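Limitations

Structures in this collection are predictions, not experimental determinations, and the ligand pose is part of the prediction. Treat each record accordingly. The example that follows, with adenosine-5'-triphosphate as the small molecule, is included so readers can see exactly what is and is not provided: the inputs are given verbatim, and the output is the predicted complex.
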Amino acid sequence: MASIEMRNIVKQYGDGFPAVNDVSLDIADGEFMILVGPSGCGKSTLLRMIVGLEDITGGDMVIGGNRVNDKAPRDRNLSMVFQNYALYPHMSVFENIAFPLRLSKTPDDEVRRRVTEAADVLELQEHLDRKPANLSGGQRQRVAMGRAIVRQAEAFLFDEPLSNLDAKLRGQMRTEISRLQRRLGITTVYVTHDQTEAMTLGDRVCVLRKGVIQQVASPRELYDQPVNLFVAGFIGSPPMNFLPATVEGRRLQTPFGTMELDDRRAAAVSGRDLLLVGIRPEYFEDASLVDEAKRPHGTTFRARVDVTEWLGDQQYAYIPYDAPEEVQNQLRELSRELDSEALRTQAIVSIDSTSRIREGRDAEFWMDSRKAHVFDPSTGENLT
Ligand code: ATP
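Predicted complex:
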């Protein structure tokens, strides 16, 4: 096993914008790191540079303490698991797992020992004589990982391995990969564009945008302390709401009324003019259901409910609001980049399923100012 260090990595295809632009990232030995971001952000290119399938334009790629920029993929001893698992349909599970050992002409008894060991770890002992076609998706994934284990690879690299699967299987496989990675403790780098996958799988998540790292943090930290509008909008589903606001001392005027700021937030916005307030759907409530002790920490407001969606344990309400043209354009642009229709001039609020709000009617809501983020609309920086 090995650590992976990237120092000022650049990838330039042709003479356009660099696909990967000065990326420095340390992945610890045994760590599960997710690379996530919208299409074209450079995550696959970065993964391909780790494995050696793509030349590095600038910077150093260091694996297990050795600079590998000029090493061929086969000399890096990494194992890449692809979307379709790349199993041979005519070979048994045993032979599929044994494949890299056969290539390196490992003696038969050694092959048998290592494949059996891998099958034990992966709980595939009873399936060794089967063909891949007779396995479930999860079992096939394990065979692919078995092949990586027998090679004693230094790290596993996954490039969107679940994107072809239906939602249910994807959920199962996520759990499976996560369980196996913990058990094996092998350094793992996993590329996805799916923020749910990113949040549920990794120890840490690296969010990329246009070839540049935005934030590297644990899933919880990304969710609670996004560094900018981009990360805030990308992580979380439904996404964070962004409300235009003007500053008046320690108060913010939002389309949903006046928000009183605590000392920390008031200091962060002092001297500012127009801002964007970011507040996640779950920090709104039906005002009639708010705990009285909590009420003073937030803003109560009336608004018309456009659409409701009932999900059993909660319901979403869509509340349109007015925003200056400039803010509307900005949100439209962000929603295009994140491929999310939700980021428009409507708030999505998640409230208790017992709430009696009705579509097309006014209702009273409450939002928790203690959970508000404040963003600089020009730089996108989170000021709080
Ligand atoms: P996706 O999720 O769509 O695969 P990604 O985040 O993995 O996207 P990359 O495939 O790494 O993104 O691509 C990053 C940028 O580099 C994109 O703008 C892409 O068009 C460009 N690019 C990728 N491969 C090549 C190539 N072989 N030649 C030229 N440009 C490329």
